[in-house]
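# step 3/5: fold
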Amino acid sequence: MRVIKEPIDVNVVPELPEVETICRGLNQLTLGLEILGGDVLLENSIACPISVVDFLAGLQGKAIAHWYRRGKYLLAELGEPGTEKIKSRVREEDFSSIPNSPSWLGVHLRMTGQLLWLDRDEPLQKHTRVRLFLAGGQELRFVDQRTFGKMWWVPPEIEVAKVVTGLKNLGPEPFSAEFSVKYLTAKLQGKMRSIKTALLDQNLVAGLGNIYADEALFLSGVRSQTLCSDLTKDQIKCLHVSIIKVLQNALDAGGTTFSNFLNIHGVNGNYGGIAWVYNRTGQPCRVCGTPIERLKLAGRSSHFCPQCQK
């Protein structure tokens, strides 16, 4: 068997399963802990406020009430130390118009960002950008090799989406009721662009990216370059089911590690070992044995089985 060594896809970023894995880990470990202070080692990692001093001052003395994921964003609702956990006042699909709004900590990992939960005396990783010191002698450390990741502090009474502006452009969450077969059909039918390009559009569905778009297309038997306008209603229905199934399987595996993704304990995700097509160029299809192929589509790598996908 001839296996082609897969080049590193520099556009791979943490997608819904990876960010959700981190979110769940943060909710297990950090809730109720007071932020005692911090250190910003790279000012460009802070998107808001402009002043690093103001960023740290806004967080200091606050406790983490709850972490949410919206698309590929992480948002921590902040409260006062010593109080009971703040009950959710917001849907993940909204993050706006919240009465008595708390302050928020926002994080977007981009391509190479990592959030690690460590003892404060743990040696610094080479690309450590921000450190947040929490009660109990531990810290939340933001490590980012390519420096595209960002953090925000959103003051009270300000709509989160006015500061973390990328939230305004997100479509429904894949596991939400809004992401229905009817919705997906209405968004895809008649559109003269490839289905792969459509699936990468965060306005269509939040959190889906290159890895799981390829995987969902394989399960649905559709090739990446197929035009949305050429899809049948049955194909769209199958694709809808496949998107949810692939994302759930990836969540169960703790996400995918092909380059930089680690969970908050610094552990790799395991989905890569069971992927159907992604990063498997030249390897036999797990269904029919045909070598997996790869093509470039809109500047992104697309993996597919020429036999199983038509």
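# step 4/5: annotate
Helices lie at 16-29, 52-59, 160-163, 181-188, 195-199, 210-220, 233-252.
# step 5/5: archive (pending)
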